């Protein structure tokens, strides 16, 4: 399964891109199979779900403004060597904070029992008058205290234990080094689809030998290779290659001159510092990515950073809001329990190649705390309550009783008590959460007063395991107006009403009045596959494992002895009232400016693309290029995300998918003189190029993260380079999810304030482009060609929104940012 990638088209084609990350969402509901992983094959129950609306791309585009304050440059005063030192120090602190888990995972693929086996074998050999240490144990005994000639046998046992420990540690270190070297091999990425060379088969066999059995979530962390720093010459060359299709000859020549000047004057110095950081810190770019793209951004989190995930589209297990909330909260806390015990298996590509699991650590008990110039992430070791919002009131709901998790029925009872509570919201309490949708500097200043006046209530929200919003309105797909209802559902999850989500929390569980669910996720702590894996588990567990009784309630019995949920009291000072009103007004303006369009495309899906012997992601990406060209009449830089979790603490990289090969194909499709075989040949070339770029990005040889890190170092050194520039923040965001084998669901988002974009218009172009591309293949000749080189659109036929698919078992999600 491929994960989510953003497509972003920049209006200024000479500027540097904004990156995007992977997203995995639970698959289509038609599959009864329970189980699976977030990456890559998905064999889980399904549902329809989208997406993370332009979240990371918005942040990446604006990261340069995160280094400014009111338009004036903010100097990074810390010396670059000090910053590199602190990066490494943070890495070591993370390792020390989970010492015991690191011990268990640090000895993997061995186990503590293997030491006992080795020690027993040495003792047995010694009893049989054999010396496996070749005299080393005798030397160790000589170094131990004499104790007056007594306890001679104890000295022998201690010597054997010390020798066994040294031998055991040496073997573990050797296994780690061998596994790290094996995992540094990326030749398997370059293999043709469906083929595997002898070196790759040998590599797989060796990985299986050195990987051990029954790994825990963090077992492979110490064996993952570090993300390499690409050659700066290669990065600049790839950058110039990526902008060539969208620049005039004059503009490209000027850009090439700037690039050569950068290579001659500044590149070697900046590269030296990056290599130094890559040797000292866990990852040369990820901590700076988190800081400058997310935590230093002063933009509101709502719409710009937060993303969402949907419930099943066609099925609602129960219409009872409290029951659905009870099962969902219980399932989420079961996932947290498994996470704490590392019982979640690590994600393995090809069933063998592990991905980094570091991002799982902050799913729960985490809040992004606003700061005037920079936010910080606060993560608690544990939390035994959730914060709940309903009709303008905040509640604290305990999740445990006598150190055990409350049953789903008990949780339902607590949520029902909140729904039936007739007490009104206090003045300004109803709109208080709008402050979390305000610009971060504004919210940070207001929070200082709030922390003084309402510290207990604020701590109950920020210290909760997660936030729950019991919405008073229904949501979801309706048969009466499927198109509008699906767009409204997406918008409700993305922004709500601007004051009914606590956007700082790691995630907010949203439960609508008709029992529909959704998730709003804060982006800085992790990328989308992590929360997607959690969401898969939640939907599978609450629907199929926990289940509901025939009357729609959670199974089990209520607990009348439970204390009622605690109503939080906010003593809001007068000066906060105006800030809340301004924040609410700003949130509504921001929310109303989002143009969301969600539609299922049901004429074909992954099975058809597979019959064409092509990558499904590449097929869609090239079709999106055709759709956008028809929408705007020009090419723009396009950015699609790829994961870098093959490396320790890796996050994402950008695929620049508007290639010269893709442009050649699009021009051919719009040329009436070109034949179908000619267009098909160009399409296959474009797909091959896209695959090559994707594999390079996954193996740490992308362009954008390297340029980003070079730019950060240049700022620390106060060096100015015209070559290292940033992008504007306008265009489309497109996400798509393969639902089973025969459906693709698209989400398109743009700004209503833009006169050049229209999400519904682009949606029609996407449908047309998909059919035109499919008709090039023998298997797709029956698809009606509607737009090919005609210069006008025939929109008489449109895909049905309520088409159901049967037998679907796999889902994959991809996002792209124009």
Q: Work out the radius of gyration.
A: 28 Å
The level of helicity is 40-55%
Low-confidence stretches: 1-54, 69-73, 791-811
> Which sheet architecture does the biggest sheet show?
7 strands, mixed
E-strand count: 21
Tell me what portion of residues adopts beta-strand conformation.
Answer: 5-15%
| End-to-end Cα distance | 23 Å
In order across it, which strands form the biggest sheet?
Answer: 3-14-13-12-8-9-15
Helix/sheet category: alpha+beta
Shape: globular
Mean pLDDT: 83
Instruction: Supply the number of helical segments.
Output: 24
What does this structure look like?
The protein is 42% helix and 11% strand. It has 24 helices and 21 strands. It is globular.
In brief:
The protein is α+β, with helices and mostly antiparallel strands and 818 residues long. Helix content is 42%, strand content 11%.
Main attributes of the structure:
seven-stranded mixed β-sheet; 24 helices; globular; 11% strand; disordered N terminus; 818 residues; alpha+beta
Helices and strands in order:
Elements: H1 55-61, E1 68-69, E2 72-73, H2 80-97, H3 99-106, H4 112-127, H5 136-143, H6 152-183, H7 198-210, H8 232-243, H9 249-265, H10 267-280, H11 286-295, E3 307-310, H12 321-340, E4 348-349, E5 353-354, E6 366-369, E7 376-379, E8 385-390, E9 393-398, E10 400-401, E11 404-405, H13 408-420, H14 440-453, H15 455-462, E12 467-470, H16 482-494, E13 507-511, E14 517-521, H17 528-546, E15 566-567, H18 574-592, E16 594-601, H19 606-611, H20 616-632, E17 639-643, E18 652-656, H21 660-669, H22 676-698, H23 704-716, E19 733-739, E20 744-751, H24 759-774, E21 811-817
Parallel strand pairs: 8-12, 12-13
Antiparallel strand pairs: 1-2, 3-14, 4-5, 6-7, 8-9, 9-15, 10-11, 13-14, 16-20, 17-18, 17-21, 19-21
